[in-house]
Amino acid sequence: MALWAFLLPAHDLHAMGLEQMKKLAGAGLLGVPVDAVLRHCRLPAAIVDAADAAHKKGTVRWEKTTMQLSASDWDLLYGRRQHPASRTAAWINSGPGGNACLSTDLSELMLHAKGNVGVLSVKPRADKQGYVTTYRVPDDLYTAHRVTEVTGRWKTGLPVTGLRQRYGRPDEVLKDNGVQIQRYWVVEKNNQQMPTSLHAVDFEIDRGGKTATGYVLRSSEVEFVQQKLDMLLRQWEKDYVLD
Length: 243
Fold this sequence. Notes:
alpha+beta; 10-stranded antiparallel beta sheet; 14 strands
């Protein structure tokens, strides 16, 4: 994927706020396990499995529905468009897909779920000499998958002028194979101004350069977002902690 970008300085990352990001459909699903997604949103139109054909898949059941899925990453597709059964690596919903999480202005919502996600627990040792740390991946595949990216496709795009009026100037303007991406970094800080979380919000612009056709939200569980958060933390330490 070929990318280039115009970047603003790290300390200028302030255009979009967290509350603004949360108003984008699906933002509340970031970090949520797939079992909770299915309880709230119901079954999607399809679940695309990232595992190749040779990868072992198991039989898993959600209520009365049986699927063949692996522990690899999944894409959950919600939308009014018919998803082709030719996607051999996908479970295809033969019935109506759930639309509880699909807002009226979206044609499609895609949730990327990372596989093999466990739970970290820290407990005091019995002798009170330190702590015992454990990381356990649940056996249930729906619990062991967590949403790290959300993609929304609008039925009618948002003019770029409206994008700027709503969120301000983007923090980066990128090119991805000829398609313009306007990126906003959403930073949360504590009262010492230390960055505590980071999200990347990308708006895809049509080839005419006038309309945003959709968006992608990514949490710090995505590698490049975590790298950016690490950079902001190093800058904070330099500005506020180190002499």
